[in-house]
Amino acid sequence: MPVADVDTARRCVGGFIKGDRMIDLSVGSSLFQLIPCYKGFKDITILEVNNGCIEDMEKWVKGEANSYDWAHAIDVLAELEGCSDVSSWKVMENDLRSRVTCISKCDLSLKNPTEPNVLEQVDCIINLYVLGSCCKTIDDYSLKLNNMSTLLKLGGCLILVGGFHASYYTVNDEKFNILDFEKEDLLKILEDGGYRVEHIEVTEKKSSADFVTYDNVFVVCAVKVSEC
Fold first, then answer.
1. Where are the membrane-spanning stretches (predicted)?
2. Which of 106, 146, 157, 168 is the residue whose CA sits 20 to 30 A from 133?
3. Edge-to-edge strand ranges of the sheet holding 43-48
4. What is the domain range of residue 189?
5. Mean pLDDT score across all residues of the chain
6. Which CATH number belongs to the domain containing residue 189 in this structure?
7. Is the pLDDT of residue 6 over 70?
């Protein structure tokens, strides 16, 4: 999801995110989705699906000179908030770094996605585009959502961001599948998975980026009310 599209998530999640511990499981070595909400959590675990992203995140946490610079995301968020002062980015970056206590590999096809490690359940999970990009069928999406849910406490909040009517994304001219599904499919998956949807917002694609195809961006805030 291009950084500018984070406006939808930013406006939706403010009243729902709370707790001490959070997991972020997002596509690529992304940080911009954490910037609006990280201050609500003392302990942040970042899960990645491949080793390259783990290495990138570890470089950033260590503050290495060749780590990715996310200052441009602050520029976008400051503009969305109507604020021109972005001089505090380094302070925010160091604060965010200090709250990241774990970076680990994740495989959503496993009942325990962090196997062999067993993580303490958290108060909130943010999932940015990962589920749609690693599933080929609705049943597979449901299974992997349920596996991810084992990491979330009862009463915890799931922030799920993805795309409807998607097809593929490209990396170095190589195409990768994105699940094509609709709002009704997602709502049923969440209900069957033990979630109560508190808020859902669907917006038309705003970005002109051609490396990813989708018609709509969705943001769901859902509370885990039962074990699947």
1. none
2. 157
3. 100-105, 43-48, 21-26, 122-128, 152-164, 216-224, 195-204
4. 3-224
5. 84
6. 3.40.50.150
7. no
